[in-house]
Every structure is written in C-alpha cells, then in structure tokens.
Design a protein that fits this description.
The complex is a heterodimer of chains A (159) and B (172).
Chain A lengths: L3 H12 L8 H8 L4 H13 L3 E8 L8 E7 L6 H9 L4 E6 L11 E7 L2 H14 L7 E12 L7
Antiparallel strand pairs in A: 2-4, 2-5, 3-4
Helix pairs in contact in A: 2-3
Chain B lengths: L2 H7 L18 H10 L9 H9 L3 H13 L3 E8 L7 E7 L6 H10 L3 E7 L5 E7 L2 H15 L3 E4 L3 E2 L9
Antiparallel strand pairs in B: 2-4, 2-5, 3-4
Classes of the chains: A alpha+beta (159), B alpha+beta (172).
Amino acid sequence: MIPAEKQQLLLDKLSSGLPICEFPFRRIAEELSLDEQDVLEFYRTSLANGTTKRVGMVLNHQRLGYRSNAMVVWNVPGELVDHVGELLGREDKVTLCYQRPRRAPHWPYNLFAMIHGKCRQAVLAEIARIRKENGLENIEHDVLFSTRKFKQTGARYAS
Amino acid sequence: MHPDSVEKKISKQKSRSHLLQEPVNLNELEKQLINRLQGDLPLTERPFLQIADELGTTESEVILVLNRLLEEGVITRFGPLFDISKGSGCFSLCALKVPQTDIDRIASIVNEFPQVAHNYLRDNEWNMWFVLAAKCQDELTAIFEQIVELTGCPGINCPKEKEFFVGLNLPV
C-alpha cells in the first residue's frame, strides 16, 4: 500500500507522463522511494475504479496528416441519445463523443462528436457516410470546423 | 505546400523534427506502435518488452522508436490519461459568439485565464470554443460569468453530461 501522503506525489509524477525505458514503473518507484509492485498496484486500482481511463499515448493529429477537425453537433431527441451516442462512438474516425446540455434558445444541440480527417472534404464525406449508414439523416446537425487554435495546454486529461 | 511534396522532402528521419506541424512519413513499426499504443499499455514490470513480443520486434527498438516519436512531437504525451470527472477538478466546454472583427482581442482576454485549457476558433456563429478547468463547480461558473462579462459576448456553458465509449483513436 502506498501511504496517502505519497499518493498525490505519485499522481503528480504520473501526470507528467511515464518514462519510456525498460522498467518504467521501477524508475518512478525509485524516484519517490516507493516499491515497484505498489506503484503497479496503484495503477491497476486506478484503472479498475476508472480514475485513470487508460495508459497510452496522446497523438499530435497534425503530425499524422490529420489536418482537419470538425465538431459535429446533433439535436437528438432525449430517448434516442444513448443509442445515437453509442453508434457514433463505434465509428473509427470519431475520437470523442459526449452528451451535453442544450442551451435554448441559442443552442439546440445535445450530442457532440469530434471527427478528424486528412482534409475538409474527407471529413465531410465521412460525416455523410456516418449519417447514411447509421440512419441519422433526419437528425438535425451542424458541422463546426476548427479554423484557428488560440491555446492548447498539456493534454493530460480526456476532457 | 501540398502534403505529398512535404512527405517526399522528409524521407530522412533525422530531418523530421524540424517541421513540427507538418505530416510525417511513418515506417511500418512506427505505425504498428501507434495503433497498438492507442489501446492500453500492459501493466507489467516491462511493458515495452511485452509490446515488442506482440509486434515481433525487440524491447530496445520499441523504446528507441517511442522516444523518437515523442521527441519529434508525433506523440504529445505518453502515460496515464486521468478521467477528469473522477478527479478533484471540474471541467466544461464553453463557447462565445464573437464579432468577426474582434476575434484577436477577445481571444487574448479569454486566454489570459489560467483556467482556459484549450481555445479554438470554429466556423459557426458560436465561433470561440474553449475548455474551462477549475477546482470546483462554483469556481467554474464564476470564471465563465467573468469571461462573458469581460468580453461582452454572449456565452454558453456546456458541461459533459455523459461520455460514450470511443475505441481506437486514429488508425495510421
């Protein structure tokens, strides 16, 4: 077990990333004078209870040639939100899918899906395909392409 | 410049880090690693050895390639991704309706706030979209109201209500 006062230190340490070396958990354990097995156990517990979503990488979309990014928003009737959300979540090019509150009268949309593609046309074609194949053609939607990035801090969280 | 012509120019791997926002040409192992590691890292003492075995390569090669991808900015981060809703913080996606002629000024007002994590311009009448990160709901609401007041722009605050499972991120 890791003492409570060290748990926050460990979280802070982990939030700056995992070292890429032969024994990454041992290295973190050594830096914080902890036991390697305790650090691994802490990780497993944190994944099991959902505090940590996954351990892996965050990619730079632009460097991979994904230059276009659209936030596709939908006005889905309440009883269909779960169904449509799950359909969108299954699509390869959808990288995030969240339900959010509508803000009447300004904003009628309650389901947000992020779609990345190599160019604008590719993203639009993908959206058209997703709508058709999932039978979403009658659901009101809008497409908001990002045109400028003003600020992006470290992507530590899946927000 | 057309992406294809850029890719031809950067055939030498060493030169890739000089073009930080340009697409890179990935080799087979890099693609496999990226696809594999968008899923979970094995929680074992030597996770990269297990990955190497899965992909039929060596641990030292995996470590070398991952560090290089990180250095070149293809990977922006490697490690645990915390679920913000289970942590101590509080987050929301917000938008402002900003007049076209006033975008730069408003963007700098918004970006001044340390609670603003991302801020993007999008092609909609609700054109400025930013993520707020605060210690608690009260602080978040207060910051949002402060931003609306300081900018004089109409705003909407749309916290996440439910997240739907999303599988593999970006296949390469």
